TrEMBL record:
Keywords: DNA integration, DNA recombination, DNA-binding. This is Integrase. It comes from the Bacteria. PANTHER family: PHAGE INTEGRASE-RELATED (PTHR30349), PROPHAGE INTEGRASE INTR-RELATED (PTHR30349:SF36). PROSITE patterns: TYR_RECOMBINASE (PS51898). The keyword DNA-binding applies. Residues 95-291 form the Tyr recombinase domain. One of its GO terms (molecular function) is DNA binding. The keyword Iron does not apply. One of its GO terms (biological process) is DNA recombination. Gene3D superfamilies: 1.10.150.130, Intergrase catalytic core. It holds the Pfam family Phage_integrase.
Length: 306
């Protein structure tokens, strides 16, 4: 087969990529196949614009995957240039932060404990720990007992569960230590009784197999109990990731040092302040505002000194 006819296959954009065949892109319900050397920038834009995307995130992911595939084709000298480079970047609207109040978090945690039993109670421990450490859900799912030191009240975050697999890195590719408060320690003590004897991972669901293989591979189980607890608590829907936002906002509203909170979350202080600015409050806020009403503010002092 000539080089120009060596093709790749992309089935269901953003989902599956495999060698052999052709590039396949979905436009409505049709499958359209094109040889690599027949794909032009105009054709790429036409196909992308003709797809009804369910969300900007899916669009961005699919385009990124196709771009990566075609970049490899360029590197392999199958085509001269990457036609997907002409596709304008997809703008993804940043999600609104929607944390729980501390009271709501405690009610929800209690409900998860109510609706779980036996080994399934590990999900309640997982949510309690997540609410009171601010770890990303994938970081908590990948936490091992060997990285927890309850005596020094620390947990090391150095890996993440991503798409069902454990990755030996964090989202930011930087490890960190999280200091554990009483509620986080309480969740760990409950979890220890359920998982320490059978798994290397703190929040291991029920199952059999090697210790190193027992961890939360899918969010399905956790999400089922999460949604049940939300419904029984009469609370509006929020994502499991909002446990992290809840921890951040609780810390800020308690007046903790932003540098400490950022270190706990694995953020820079700049990202922390830009993300959670409206939750930063202090008893001295009005005292700061009153400085504008002083008899001699900065402008007046400058004028009088002339």
């Amino acid at each position: 087969m000539p080089q120009t006819q060596r093709l790749f296959s992309l089935r269901r954009p953003g989902r599956r990529l495999r060698h052999g065949g052709r590039i396949v892109m979905c436009r409505t319900a049709d499958w359209i196949r094109y040889p690599l050397d027949k794909i032009t920038p105009v054709l790429m834009r036409k196909i992308v614009n003709g797809i009804t995307w369910t969300s900007p995130i899916r669009s961005k992911g699919a385009i990124r995957l196709v771009t990566s595939l075609l970049t490899q084709a360029v590197n392999d000298e199958l085509i001269l240039r990457n036609p997907s480079n002409s596709i304008p970047p997809t703008r993804v609207t940043k999600r609104e932060i929607d944390p729980f109040s501390r009271e709501e978090a405690d009610v929800l945690i209690g409900k998860v404990y109510e609706v779980t039993s036996g080994l399934q109670s590990i999900y309640a421990c997982f949510f309690e720990f997540s609410f009171y450490t601010g770890m990303r859900p994938g970081e908590a799912m990948a936490l091992r007992w060997s990285e927890v030191d309850t005596r020094s009240r620390r947990a090391k975050v150095c890996r993440i569960r991503l798409y069902g697999k454990i990755k030996e890195r964090t989202k930011t590719k930087v490890s960190r230590e999280v200091l554990l408060n009483d509620r986080a320690l309480q969740a760990l003590e409950k979890a220890r009784l359920l998982t320490a004897a059978r798994s290397d991972y703190v929040f291991a669901p029920e199952g059999s197999g090697e210790r190193s293989e027992l961890y939360i591979r899918s969010e399905t189980g956790a999400k089922r109990y999460w949604l049940t607890a939300l419904r029984k608590s009469g609370m509006r829907y929020r994502r499991m990731y909002d446990t992290r936002h809840t921890y951040a906002t609780m810390c800020l509203m308690s007046g903790m040092n932003p540098a400490f909170i950022a270190a706990q979350l694995g953020h820079s202080v700049q990202v922390l302040l830009s993300t959670y600015a409206k939750w930063i409050s202090s008893p001295s806020d009005f005292a700061e505002l009153d400085k504008l009403d002083l008899p001699k503010n900065g402008t007046k002092l400058v004028l009088e000194s002339r």
